[in-house]
Amino acid sequence: MMQGRRARWRALAATTVAALALTAAPGAVAAQGDDDGRDASDGFVNGTNDGRTATGTAATTIPGGPGRSAGGGGGDGGPNCTKSDGTGDYYWYEGLLYTTMEEQRTDIRPEEQRPGVYLHIHCGDEYVGFQFFPDGVQAPVDPVALARSVSITPPAPVLVTNPAAGDHLVEVEAWFWVENWEPVTAPPATAGNVTVNVSAEPTALVIDPGDGSPAFTCTGRPPAYDRSRPAEGQSSPCSYTYSRAGMFAATATLVYEVSFTSNVGVNEGLGTIEPTTTVDLAVREAQAIVVG
Fold first, then answer.
1. Could you say which of 7, 139, 254, 266 would form a disulfide bridge with 64 (CB–CB 3.0 to 4.6 Å)?
2. CA 117 – CA 192 distance, rounded (Å)
3. Is 290 part of any domain?
4. Cα(168)–Cα(163) distance, integer angstroms
5. CA–CA distance, 264 with 70 (Å, rounded to integer)
6. What is the rounded CA–CA span in Å between residue 202 and residue 225?
7. 6 with 137, same domain?
8. What is the mean pLDDT of each run of 10 residues along the chain (292 residues)?
9. Domain count, the chain
């Protein structure tokens, strides 16, 4: 009877891990209750099992989250495991998906009665196995997963133009810039012995003029137009000349490069965040005045 239950559990584990991997929601943390020996701070994965079917929601977990161990790869932050195809990757850990700690200790692994937690071990996208971690033996904390769990929301660009939004003219150069070209830094995040600092740095402004022409990218902070100086003495790489009159919705996208640093030597980029703002521009034909 015991062997039959173990066989069903192993088969269920294989199919459920595959199914949950397809619906994983990185950055979302779901904790089980106290019935399995864990509390909300563990950040493991919810799962239910009625003996025939299992359901659950996979989630990034800290500790035991996807990624590398602290100081892994000989302390240089490099890969700390090897996949079946020979490529290096990082260990990550997943909590109980479809059993409780009580079931593990009574029905599945009665030989293991020490205080601790069971974790699924992965190397990248490959499943390695299931292991018991006694109390005092902490699963490695992944700096990348910890950094990705940090919420950072750069503000949308405050777009300014010259001429003003309602005063543009056909064949007159329009300047674009933003007032809030500033880096954004989130409060430090710590899990175990790992601390990360996540920041977002503005690097480019993308302008869609709104008249059907392609968007263009202005790398670096565009200069603001100085109305106290002669127009011929100023120039901007972030300007556009409208060739026809009309009302156009110009869209500005401020590109922030997100990255993090950590106290364990792992410092990486996390991609971009690109908030947008749309401004209605009135472009009119210049009226010539004839004096006769």
1. 139
2. 16
3. no
4. 6
5. 6
6. 20
7. yes
8. 37 32 28 35 41 39 34 44 75 75 77 75 81 68 83 93 91 94 93 88 97 95 92 91 94 97 90 95 75 50
9. 2
